[in-house]
């Protein structure tokens, strides 16, 4: 945020608030009527009030800011500064600054600035008001005037769809708004003389539906679709026909779409079949299906059209489908819905499956009499996936484990035929085998298991390095060791970038700031949010408005909100703080306060809203399904417990909330709402058990922190867990890093407090100083030489254990990992582990 | 089972299985969004029975006069749904959208494909596309800023692209396609609209 004067900005940045005030006061004396310079003064006062060195209090700053606000300034730059000042002061003025200003001085500049601000801040309700103000500021009969009227109607739709919680649109306000929107668009329609285009029609129809005028909406849609086949409008049309049980119209329009226009669309088949059944036209639709070009959809429609009681028909349809598609990878996924719905008895499906197994001579592959072809491989994959889906208890069986290993073995020669980037589905056998192994050995799983399975996956990736399921499983296994370097390597192999950072990076970054100082993954993620998201998204929404692409508007706004307020974004910020605190830079406090704390304050504001609407909550955009989008596509509790334990799980909203509150408690000590942080933190600390991602040492540190936050000033007993002994375990670096981080945290608390803050109380300071001394002592006692010696021993023991497991264990030996691969893996493990240990 | 649905910005959160495939480019945010707000009807996805994306198409319109056409910028399919004609299905939809008089009424559809990508070329030929011209060094490093240094006669399958076209109903006389396209060489600057 810039004040518009470089010297003042520089003084604020350097924390020299006296100089900044001196400079602005000089400007005020030169321009005594300038509201902007006065807003600038408020802005400086707010900064000063948040700093431990300044005598300015929050109340002083707020008083002066409110005084200026009461004069209703209307200069956009003044409003921007005032708005930022209120944000700094954690104060929400009773009236929206822009709304108040525009009531007094109507201008399109001001209305546009307000609109832009609402887009930037994701304030949907104010966005609607701003577009209304904007539309009043333009002449209605001009091109721009008409466009802006359309904007205001379109925002009404977004508002009604997105603002449902917390009684934001209570007492029929949604109906009133839709009527208002309709009035606006009908006005535009009259002005236009030519008909509405598809995007405008979208707005009109949505508003008609929201008003409750379905009949009129269907009429408009039917009329429009005869002239232009717009997909978005067609979806609305079909949906409304179904909802209103207009079977004849639904049937006819679906058949037209499938046959006349020629779109072979599964959802339309389903609707056509449904409508046909309601109209007693099953025979007619069956004939249409039979005459239709052969494809997956029409083959599945043959199953869908059959009556529940038509047992033989369904059997035959399944057989036909398997004959046509069992050698295609989509086979299992296509049938999954039918399998879930038990469209045929389990025994019957298994019987058919065995029939196909014999027909395709799969047994001869299993016994080694026949060499598997690419088609055989896919058939086998589908066979085992369907079978496992139907018999989930297979995972408990040693025989099943052996079968999966065997299938992997008898098909692995096909990997030799792969050219770069080819997709190889044989990995599915391996994932199933691993899931089965973990299920059978649930009670014997330990850190060594992670290392053994890492070797299994590394071995299979030698020839299939782009297989992303295996790579992601591998990343989770590495996360549960002390090895962080391989995570960067996998991240690079998968070329994770752009939005994938939001959806996938938490698969790699669990506790990474407390494992290594090397912050590559954190910086990549941080830069994405800091540069791409912050700079690219607001203009995109503006472009959506400018192009009048109303059917995408809600998606754009939701997208921006979800990325900006995502778990990954905030976790990245939290890890950046921790990483920077643990680093050697002397200006980390200033950097953190200026760059990261404002983001966390925003996170806190969202957390506090705690609603169900898109703009009232933090979003978990991490892809939680991808690990389990293989095998039988089900999440199995035991393997999941192993793969997604404390250090391998994807961090969740609760964990982010706890960490955010902690950082705000440390760095935002002079905030008006600091006590809220404290209270919320203490509530969350009481619910430790709900937070899976918390490591043992973190729990201890947060417990100590909760004691500091109590009013009591007695000496705090340091109760932390025993030092971990296995240097290859994920707890190892995490333990030492977290301890050292806590020492820095206590330094920060003492550095950031002042007599007006909670920690600035003399007795509290003494209590924290004493604790700081004790923690510092613990950090000084870390014996790095002995850790290094022990680590080398740990690695040798683990290597011997792995070698033994792969040769002698009844499960391990079936993975058939060559000894040289084990040795190479351990060579890498040794390098990565020692590198990690040396970072302590 | 496959259905076609309009592509929304929020669908980008659900593309992991498609975009993790090494052959699929994972573009910067602006790229996707630009297609959505500029050509909203030409971006769509195929979904499975659970509404999860299994593939998508990003296309645009460009050109004037008889060069007015739809251009396929990206078409990609989840590895689990390959070899069942889903790529063709997505391309066919574009024809259904671009051909009618309202709203697009294009003369043809075109796309660029690396000359070395034989599998894709065969697929497009099966769909009715033919090579219109060879764009020298289209995928090379020079095409953005220094086309002068490109030797128009020096062909290289790994960096050259075939500009492939299919003419639509509006092109009654097949004026927008040609038979000997493989022998017509142009520079990247010649294919800008």
UniProtKB/TrEMBL annotation, chain A:
Belongs to the MDM20/NAA25 family. This is Uncharacterized protein. InterPro entries: NAA25_NatB_aux_su. One of its GO terms (cellular component) is NatB complex. The lineage of its organism: Eukaryota, Fungi, Dikarya, Ascomycota, Saccharomycotina.
Automatic annotation (TrEMBL), chain B:
GO terms for cellular component: NatB complex. The keyword Transmembrane does not apply. GO terms for molecular function: protein-N-terminal amino-acid acetyltransferase activity. Keywords: Acyltransferase, Transferase. Signal peptide: none annotated. Residues 2-169 form the N-acetyltransferase domain. InterPro entries: Acyl_CoA_acyltransferase (IPR016181), GNAT_dom (IPR000182), NatB_acetyltransferase_subunit (IPR051646). PANTHER family: N-ALPHA-ACETYLTRANSFERASE 20. This is N-terminal acetyltransferase.
